Amino acid sequence: MNIFLPILPEISIFISAIFLLLLGLFIKNIKLIINLAVVTLILAIVFVIYQPIGTAFNNSLVNDEFSKVIKILILLGSLASIIMYHSSRKDLNIDLYEFPILILLATIGMLVMASANDLIAIFIGLELQSLTLYVLASLNRNHLASSEAGLKYFLLGALSSGLLLFGLSYIYGFTGNTNLNLISTTVAPGNIGLIIGIVFVTSGLAFKVSAVPFHMWTPDVYEGAPTPVTAFFAMAPKVAAIAVAVRFLIVGFSDVAFEWQQIIIFLSIASMVFAAFAAIAQTNIKRLMAYSSIGHVGYALIGLACGTEQGISSIVIYLSIYLVMNIGVFSFILSMKYKGEHYENISDLSGLYKNHPYYSVIITVFMFSLAGIPPLAGFFGKFYIFIAAIESNLMLLAIIGILASVVGAFYYLRIIKVIYFDEEKHSFDGFNHKSLHLLIHPSAFLIILFCLYPLPLINIANYAANAFY
Amino acid sequence: MYHAIVFLPLLGFFIAGLLSFVKNNPASDKVAQILTATLVSVAALYSIYAFTINIVDAKVVHIKLFDWIAVGSLVVSWAIYVDPVTRIMLVVITSVSALVHIYSIGYMSHDSSKPRFMAYLSLFTFTMLALVTADNFLQLFFGWEGVGLASYLLIGFWYKKPTANAASIKAFVVNRIGDFGLALGIFAIFYLFGSLDYQVVFSKAEALAAGTSNISDTINFFGYQFGSINLICFLLFIGAMGKSAQIFLHTWLPDAMEGPTPVSALIHAATMVTAGVFLVVRCSPMYDLAPDVLSFITLIGASTAIFAASVGLVQNDIKRVIAYSTCSQLGYMFFAVGVGAYGAAMFHLFTHAFFKALLFLGAGSVIHAVNDEQDIRKMGGLSTYIPLTHILMIIGTISLMGFPFTAGYYSKDAIIESAYLASSGFSSYAFIVGLLGVVMTSFYSWRLMFLTFNGKSRIDEDNLSKVHESPAIMLVPLIVLAIGALFSGYLFKNYFIGSSSELFWGHSIALHHADHHDIPFLIYYAPMLLGFIGFFLAWYMYLKNKQLPHDLAKLNGPLYNFLLNKWYFDEIYNFIFVKPARATGLFLWKQIDGYIIDGFGPDGISKLVLNLSLRAKKIQSGYIYHYAFAILIGVSIFITYFIYKGI
């Protein structure tokens, strides 16, 4: 029993997923399946909280402070996605019982990623997650864009998995180990083969977190996939992939930190700058959120580039706030419907303030927070990242980050401008699905009030970062 | 009691201010007028009571209301500090203000926004009271700026009149120059003494002058070393010059006459413009340590006195003549201060408030009677139509010219005698100028009176028939002021400058005792005699030989134009300051801001960003092989980089 304790959440979700899959074949009550999936995830969160720190399967999976915090973030993201799905499954023509099950399966993959301390475990977790994501992207089979998104994601994902696997084999070849702890004992600077391995693995991971120039799939997939799926993509897999990158680079290769730092810095700058400029020309709000997520990943990577405890802690803070903001924004996007039809264009929001002043204020809060304007939570996320960068003498990175956030502020503020100052277009009848209230109000509440009591999150982040140092 | 004096006008301001949002409602107008007038009148009664107490017992009352600012070593409290100087100011401010409030009920009866007017008047009264009851320089500065604001609002009260708007802006801008000096002075005080409290600052200044202090006795200002106290006093005086319209910073005062006449009486004659004198008298312990600055004050004061009087000789606007007269009388007060006669300066401030407010309100009554005509060339012969106003204005005029036993006689004599007895810098200049000024004062005052009230009327028949005496609500304040103009000098001369002065002032000002018995007979009576000479000249020129002024003006064309155009101050300032400033502004706006900063800054960058963003969008072609290509290129770049760089 003891050897299964460290993977109790994964096992419980797995059993539940299989059970629900069978249940779905016989019962057409999708609501029941959704409810059971929600219960499973909540149970998993409880398990994660009470799980002891330890390792499993010969140290190929570890349960440390970092993985616990990351797992909770992943589970919360999955939970929010299922709730969003529930609120819109009928309108979006994706009323399929597979959705919650696929989310559960992807969640298992991501939980494995969060704990993976072995090259093989990393790959297994990543592939389990990726395969379900491909299916999720094309969930709306009758919709051309959705199928196209799934196909694109699958092809490019296969390419990136290939790169990743190639890199992993290089690393195994040059170190003779698959366990990250063992690898770290044999890593020495000056080994070009090892560096090439790291480059391939990092590129593969960069594809998963959609960092520039491996981001190209993101806007198309985000736009094409059903909105709850897009929301899911923007939240949990990002967190999981960044967690993998952190553990892989910090635990395995801290001795050649100087080398991989340069890759991360490049990815970070390219993501922040490119996302800021490219987002300006977008008209579709989901596409806009794709670029927004690319930019945010760029900021999170600054923390990784620092490679310090403070850097890791700032990543955790950043990802937590990012998750909450995305829950809020996607709940809002799901509410943009009129007579059962969903709207996705920014121009559809024009004059929203006249009909829905309250929701306009809420989306304003989210947009300001995404843009990083104090005193909202988004500002503090960036703030801790930049502090970590400055402490690690990465001044240039901090300055470029700030400048990019200035440009980036434009497209967030444009949405606010459209809402408040443009001619009224049409009213929405949405904004009233009760399950969305569960998401949109608490997230707005957290975003606004974070500045009053930031200490709990900071403590959690420090607790998580403690795992590596 | 002192709380009530200071805060009743504020209450009036709030209520009248709220009522001003009610449009075109006679009832709320009435409420606002009567309420504000009542509140200020109560404050005035309290002030008079406080003043009479002072005669018996000149004790200092210091009430700390609350700490206003407490940052590090800067602790500034909001206080009511009442000493004899404050009491004089209180009685002047509240009594004139109360009379003006009452007078305004009649004067503004045809105006459409009465509550707003009353609110502004009350606001002014409150800020002026805050100024004089300060126990530190910062509260003084608050009041100083507050009265500036109220003055701005009231000059521009008829905001639909372009000239009124221009005048209010001019007053504000010119005052800013002075205020800048004052602010610098306050900074210097805090820099040197580490406190803004009067008592602390004065005692430290004395210690500094006595050499028992470790504070630096020089201060670096624009790269020059100045004596600390000299510099502070000089900067504070710059502030006083602005507020009290001394020469070079006087240009706003005549233009301020664009405001309603009660405003001119209250702000631009009796109270606000005397704030500069108050400031210097308040700081007299410090000014006594800066004799060079006192000489400078004497020079400026005396020059203002003669300059303004000379301009007053030829002006044709009834209010402008009185405005220049005010300017000139302020000059007298300043050179009294300059020669160390603080008591005499305060005395003149006190009496001047009565007779000058009387003259202004009387002029207002005349203007009211002749249907808003202000040009005295278009008046004349009004004495039979408005006899009461005529008599009251005569009282004001004789007090101003220094007719024996009127208020002005005592105070002006005291100033001129002080100048004669003093041996400080420029005191003889001040004495001669003071005497010359007396002739001019008398001449322009009587010229105004004769042209307005005597001779043949130059008003056309239609309007003449409409000329009427003002209502009682306007005349009663005039009568009260006339009583003050006649008797305030005789009644209080002992306290201000005479035998009881030491008891009266306590330690509130620096007192200097000069032996008045040394004054020669001729000097003693000179001001009075010169006043009569001015009167006869005016009588001869404007009633007896009416052709003479025209001939004189023709004969001395350049001089006449020089005076008529106010020594060309406005034109010179326009040329030196206004035009270059406008040109610079235009240049900065069009060229620097519009072309360079906007072009390369916001506009240019936003164009660039949009361009870049369209390119970034184009990269996103939607073709999967483009995407795969980007991934592979990315990997290749990394590997190439590491291989070339070597490890």
Which features characterize this protein?
heterodimer; A: 469 residues; two-stranded antiparallel ribbon; two-stranded antiparallel sheet; globular; B: 647 residues; 4% strand
Can you give a write-up of this model?
- The complex is a heterodimer of chains A (469) and B (647).
- Chain A is mostly helical.
- Chain A has one domain (2-465).
- Helix content of chain A is 75%, strand content 2%.
- In chain A, the strands form two sheets. A two-stranded antiparallel sheet of chain A has the order 1-2. In chain A, strands 3-4 form a two-stranded antiparallel sheet.
- In chain A, helix 3 (65-88) runs antiparallel to helix 10, helix 4 runs parallel beside helix 10 and helix 13 packs across helix 19.
- By secondary structure, chain B is mainly alpha-helical.
- In chain B, the strands form two sheets. Chain B has a two-stranded antiparallel sheet. A two-stranded antiparallel ribbon of chain B has the order 3-4.
- In chain B, strand 1 and strand 2 (74-82) form a beta hairpin.
- The termini of chain B are far apart.
- Chain A binds chain B through residues 152, 155-156, 159-160, 163, 189-192, 195-196, 199-200, 202-203, 206-207, 213-214, 216-217, 219-220, 259, 262-263, 266, 274, 277-282, 407, 410, and chain B through 609-610, 612-614, 616-617, 619-620, 622, 624, 626-628, 630-631, 633-635, 638-639, 641-643, 647.
User: What is the 3D shape of chain B?
Assistant: globular
- Largest sheet composition of chain B: 2 strands, antiparallel
Report the radius of gyration of chain B as a whole number of Å. Answer: 30 Å
The helix/strand order of chain A is HHEEHHHHHHHHHHHEEHHHHHH
Biggest sheet descriptor of chain A: 2 strands, antiparallel
**Total DSSP E strands of chain B:** 4
**Which radius of gyration of chain A do the C-alpha atoms yield?**
21 Å
Helix content of chain A: over 70%
In spatial order, strands of the major sheet of chain A run: 1-2
Distinct helical segment count of chain A: 19
State which percent range the strand residues of chain B make up.
under 5%
State the end-to-end distance of chain A: 30 Å
Gross morphology of chain A: globular
